[in-house]
């Protein structure tokens, strides 16, 4: 595979007897991620614009570079009561191809309130240099590794910052997330991140509702690399998926889905009337309707 990642951990004090019981939940972990042939610089078209694609619609690159991340983390799992679990943690990571690093200090909280409401929350402070991204690998990585910011691949964007002469800036930021499940049916999730500098804010919101009078609704919205709250819900370069289902007979349902997503942009070649992919990404609207089965 082109990409792989793994995390291993150990509870070191469980190898010793006679120690206080609270030490048994101290965790030491290491993380490794590799994109062994990460795209670095896309081939340009004859007019100088990005990007050249092959007959299969795959963006072509002049060079590739191995991208890897190494991480080390410490955590202490605390359970003061059956309905609550707290995990303060500290982790440090290195983006190897730029030499950039960052430290994350936070607390993960889990609450189970009478088996009615289950709540998970994370608050995290981050400090890093500008050649490092705390969420370098994320759910958007397949797009961002090709088209990140300023028309560059993600590896080249941070690589160019690393190659600039002079000292690198130190950036401070934070991450907050919340997951709420009610009666194992309603799910609400959200993530908000913000760092110093432009285009360093990220937002994700998800809502899943159960079947009510035969109708089920769910929605997902994500916006990355925006600047300020005023751009948080600007759908340009955002991802929005909304779906409605209606069960009309037994396990059968009809559904309607709206997607605003990124795809390779297309243009029409007037010479041979063939639609060709240009190698650049654009935001499009898409509708889908159908019938499904759910047990």
Could you explain the architecture of this structure?
The chain is mainly β. The protein contains 2 helices and 14 strands; from the N terminus they run βββββββααβββββββ. It has helices spanning 141-144, 154-163; strands at 3-10, 26-42, 61-76, 78-81, 84-95, 100-113, 117-129, 170-182, 186-195, 201-208, 215-226, 238-249, 252-269, 274-293. Strand 12 (238-249) and strand 13 form a beta hairpin. The longest helix is centred in the middle third of the chain and has 10 residues, at 154-163.
Mean pLDDT: 84
Largest sheet: 14 strands, antiparallel
Describe the global form: globular
In DSSP terms (H or I, runs of 4 or more residues), the helix count works out at 2
Strand content: over 45%
* Oligomeric description of these chains: single chain
Helix content range of the residues, please? Answer: under 10%
Distance between the termini: 34 Å
Any low-confidence stretches, pLDDT <50, length ≥5? 268-275
Count the beta strands. 14
| Structural class category | mainly beta
Topology as a string of helices (H) and strands (E): EEEEEEEHHEEEEEEE
Over the alpha carbons, how many angstroms does the gyration radius reach?
Answer: 23 Å
């Amino acid at each position: 595979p082109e990409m792989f990642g793994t995390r291993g951990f150990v509870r070191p004090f469980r190898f010793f007897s006679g120690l206080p019981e609270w030490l048994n939940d101290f965790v030491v972990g290491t993380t490794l991620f590799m994109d062994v042939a990460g795209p670095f610089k896309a081939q340009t078209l004859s007019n100088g614009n990005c990007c050249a694609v092959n007959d299969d619609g795959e963006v072509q690159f002049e060079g590739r570079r191995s991208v890897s991340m190494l991480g080390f983390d410490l955590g202490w799992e605390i359970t003061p009561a059956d309905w609550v679990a707290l995990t303060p943690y500290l982790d440090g990571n290195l983006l190897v191809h730029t030499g950039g690093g960052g430290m994350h200090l936070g607390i993960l909280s889990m609450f189970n309130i009478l088996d009615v409401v289950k709540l998970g929350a994370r608050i995290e402070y981050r400090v890093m240099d500008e050649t490092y991204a705390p969420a370098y690998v994320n759910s958007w990585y397949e797009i961002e590794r090709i088209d990140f910011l300023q028309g560059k691949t993600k590896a080249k964007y941070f690589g160019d910052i690393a190659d600039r002469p002079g000292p690198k800036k130190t950036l401070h930021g934070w991450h907050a997330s919340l997951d709420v499940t009610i009666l194992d049916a309603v799910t609400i999730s959200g993530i908000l991140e913000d760092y110093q500098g432009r285009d360093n804010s990220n937002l994700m919101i998800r809502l899943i509702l159960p079947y009510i009078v035969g109708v089920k609704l769910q929605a997902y919205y994500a916006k990355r690399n925006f600047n300020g709250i005023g751009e948080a819900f600007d759908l340009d370069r955002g991802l929005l998926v909304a779906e409605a289902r209606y069960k009309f007979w037994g396990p059968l349902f009809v559904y309607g889905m709206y997607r605003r997503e990124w795809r390779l942009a297309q243009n029409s070649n007037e010479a041979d009337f063939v639609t060709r992919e240009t190698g650049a990404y654009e935001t499009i609207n898409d509708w889908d309707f159908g019938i499904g089965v759910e047990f």
